Amino acid sequence: MLFSEKLRALRMEKNLSQRELADAASLSLRTIQNWESGERMPKKRESYAALARVLDVDVNALMDENAAFSLEARDRYGARGARQAAELVRQVSQLYAGGDLAEEDMEAMNLALQEAYWAVKKTNRKFVPRKFR
Which residue has the higher pLDDT, 125 or 47? Predict the structure, then answer.
């Protein structure tokens, strides 16, 4: 299940409006709307923690594998790494559109591509800003 779907389902389960969730998590209404629509994802682990606290769930219950990948890319390689990771996820997701690939196979493919991303980044260290090496 995607982050946007999880967020919406958990919010509705707690009987909260988007505004109430935003206020309780100290986030903007527009941020919650963007996340639930799938237009954007949280850029910081703290955002996931705030949502998890308000929704009374474990942080890992909110995150999907793509979110963890993007956050780790941000931690390792900064905003540029996060953008590259998000673009990789977006392109791979387009490959699955309309297909009949089983959920387990999609997850396995995502993990393989993420591992390939880390290997390439490690090999091409000269393109990684010094502060992230």
Answer: 47
